[in-house]
Amino acid sequence: MTDLSQIVKAYDVRGVVPTQWDETLAELFGAAFAEITGADAIVTGHDMRPSSPGLSGAFARGAAARGADVTEIGLCSTDELYFASGALGLPGAMFTASHNPAQYNGIKMCRAGAAPVGQDTGLGEIRALVERWSDEGAPEPAAVPGTVTRRDVLGDYAAHLRGLVDLSGIRPLKVVVDAGNGMGGHTVPTVFEGLPLEVDALYFELDGSFPNHEANPLDPKNIVDLQARVRETGADLGLAFDGDADRCFVVDENGDPVSPSAITALVAARELAKHPGGTVIHNLITSWSVPEVVKENGGEPVRTRVGHSFIKEEMAKTGAIFGGEHSAHYYFRDFWNADTGMLAAMHVLAALGGQDGPLSQLVDRYDRYAASGEINSTVDDQTGRLAAIKAAYEGRAGVALDELDGLTVTAGDWWFNVRASNTEPLLRLNVEARDTATAERVRDEALAIIRA
């Protein structure tokens, strides 16, 4: 029996091409996607990886064979595909492996209006169909096959974003943008065209072999070039996008990283000015500063598990106006609850360009605590180590525990969270405290138990 458990993850399809999956499987995924969504029309897009056009084309053929009309938007960022799904009211499929190495590719799928397709919302059923058809042969084509047409939505995507954040009146800014040879090199020129921005473009050439560095700005080694260029040129800030350009990472005028929690707080304050009293979602390892800023600006903070499906689910349930994660994913009600790094970047540019001070000074009010960042430890027994931490802190005076996602331990002037990786034998630790000395003490104490 065919088993696709190695490539069908919790939220997407991802694996090495062609050893783990290929165009034959992509065609079956297209057929299954059309079947499970029941859609008579879908939209597809792809990133710059060498295997992406072929896989995307095969998926379109599979969907069309089941009777669905396919609109191919071609080269695009993941948030551009979400835009197309929302604006056109169609289920969508984006071919990308985000920041994974060149030999990988994947599919991020959504229902109409960019609603996520995950393991419990259709992906499990799609996998089961593809496994069955792999063994028994593809289903009979529909009596009337669908059509496959091309459509360029980049201009419409840019116009939509520019309608949400007006940058036309800001003071002129010099911004270094590192696209990492990913899809930011495709979207940034159109979105920023004609605005009072002097863009210093780093690695805008689309190249799925990632010749300069991995397109993963959360890894400090991948923003070294951006930091150096900002310092060398005296730029006002730097922006780094990941491979499919749905995440954006910010550095200030000194080249220092701005924490995604500070960006979440900044954008939350701006969104609450537009939507007074709104709800803002934040995952449980964003900084204490996020719910504080939300409350200070008259909003309602809601804490969730880590992961885009949980954020989007909670946004839909609560009608939230905005959501942010420590991983530099930012979600907007005005963008069909989907994540878009570009829109978050535009909020930062608008906030910076709307006043005279430097970015470091602007974000200082949102960056209030000392944090460890995410520390990964390889362990033999994730469950056993988590139980050991729980035993060590349970019953301590002034300490509260919760298990919303992994284990969170909270005291008066610090907290930490430990979560197990779903894909590797790792425990992930995040610590925050009111001062650096406390953060280091708590970090070392927790790591001693994790790595015992």
UniProtKB/TrEMBL annotation:
<dbReference type="InterPro" id="IPR005845">
    <property type="entry name" value="A-D-PHexomutase_a/b/a-II"/>
</dbReference>
<dbReference type="Pfam" id="PF00408">
    <property type="entry name" value="PGM_PMM_IV"/>
</dbReference>
<keyword id="KW-0479">Metal-binding</keyword>
<keyword id="KW-0413">Isomerase</keyword>
<feature type="domain" description="Alpha-D-phosphohexomutase alpha/beta/alpha">
    <location>
        <begin position="156"/>
        <end position="255"/>
    </location>
</feature>
<dbReference type="GO" id="GO:0046872">
    <property type="term" value="F:metal ion binding"/>
</dbReference>
<feature type="domain" description="Alpha-D-phosphohexomutase alpha/beta/alpha">
    <location>
        <begin position="6"/>
        <end position="132"/>
    </location>
</feature>
<dbReference type="GO" id="GO:0016868">
    <property type="term" value="F:intramolecular phosphotransferase activity"/>
</dbReference>
<dbReference type="Pfam" id="PF02880">
    <property type="entry name" value="PGM_PMM_III"/>
</dbReference>
<comment type="similarity">
    <text>Belongs to the phosphohexose mutase family.</text>
</comment>
<dbReference type="Pfam" id="PF02879">
    <property type="entry name" value="PGM_PMM_II"/>
</dbReference>
<dbReference type="InterPro" id="IPR005846">
    <property type="entry name" value="A-D-PHexomutase_a/b/a-III"/>
</dbReference>
<feature type="domain" description="Alpha-D-phosphohexomutase C-terminal">
    <location>
        <begin position="374"/>
        <end position="446"/>
    </location>
</feature>
<dbReference type="InterPro" id="IPR036900">
    <property type="entry name" value="A-D-PHexomutase_C_sf"/>
</dbReference>
<feature type="domain" description="Alpha-D-phosphohexomutase alpha/beta/alpha">
    <location>
        <begin position="263"/>
        <end position="369"/>
    </location>
</feature>
<dbReference type="InterPro" id="IPR016055">
    <property type="entry name" value="A-D-PHexomutase_a/b/a-I/II/III"/>
</dbReference>
<keyword id="KW-0460">Magnesium</keyword>
<dbReference type="GO" id="GO:0005975">
    <property type="term" value="P:carbohydrate metabolic process"/>
</dbReference>
<dbReference type="InterPro" id="IPR005843">
    <property type="entry name" value="A-D-PHexomutase_C"/>
</dbReference>
<dbReference type="Pfam" id="PF02878">
    <property type="entry name" value="PGM_PMM_I"/>
</dbReference>
<protein>
    <submittedName>
        <fullName>Phosphomannomutase/phosphoglucomutase</fullName>
    </submittedName>
</protein>
<keyword id="KW-0597">Phosphoprotein</keyword>
<dbReference type="InterPro" id="IPR005841">
    <property type="entry name" value="Alpha-D-phosphohexomutase_SF"/>
</dbReference>
<dbReference type="InterPro" id="IPR005844">
    <property type="entry name" value="A-D-PHexomutase_a/b/a-I"/>
</dbReference>
